């Protein structure tokens, strides 16, 4: 479902599997386990790059799994979807608390919870030749979990951009996302996205910031989101004199 490797000071979390990387309980658990390993191995001067194999970064929650596991019961399928929403919330918390810079390299489509996964990183890079960002909830008839709304307000600064993404379900291409201010940069193809992400990660890692200080400052940037996630902040003083 995902693999983890470390090259120098950069951790690489790669989403693998069926091609769409839909988030079900097993996949969510796999990602959380990898992030726990990253956290346990972290030292000052590390960074994380998240990438995905194939056409998709992530196509959101695994609705087919919910339908199959429900035995054909619509109400049970809805309950399982709510379960996935609840299981995914701590994964977002994990990324917001990770003691190092994080970069999502989007080499394909990122939809619904898949887009939330990307936005849970500090930086998002995207390819311009293929792939869109898409919040599908209004199209499929679902309201947004509170932490989805909080992360959209925290990471997508322009009100008109949030409106179009959430109330029009626009499919945003790379250059549009850069103009909207929530994607760092657009690149010609998947390979160049990953190269740019690695370069950024290596440059950030060179700063050798204290991970605890970094994560606390990150959390302080998003008080609404941290409140919804149940994350607390604390004062940390580790001056480099």
Structure summarized in a few sentences:
The protein has 241 residues and is an alpha/beta fold. It has helices at 25-41, 63-69, 74-97, 113-119, 137-140, 146-155, 159-167, 174-180, 190-205, 211-221, 223-229, and strands at residues 2-7, 10-15, 47-52, 56-58, 102-106, 109-111, 123-127, 133-134, 185-187.
Report on this structure.
The chain is of the alpha/beta class and 241 residues long. β2, α1 (25-41) and β3 (47-52) form a beta-alpha-beta unit. α1 runs parallel beside α3 (74-97) and α2 (63-69) crosses α3 (74-97). The strands form 2 sheets. A 6-stranded mixed β-sheet has the order 1-2-3-5-7-9, with helices on both faces. A 3-stranded parallel β-sheet has the order 4-6-8. It has helices at residues 25-41, 63-69, 74-97, 113-119, 137-140, 146-155, 159-167, 174-180, 190-205, 211-221, 223-229, and strands at 2-7, 10-15, 47-52, 56-58, 102-106, 109-111, 123-127, 133-134, 185-187. The mean pLDDT is 94.
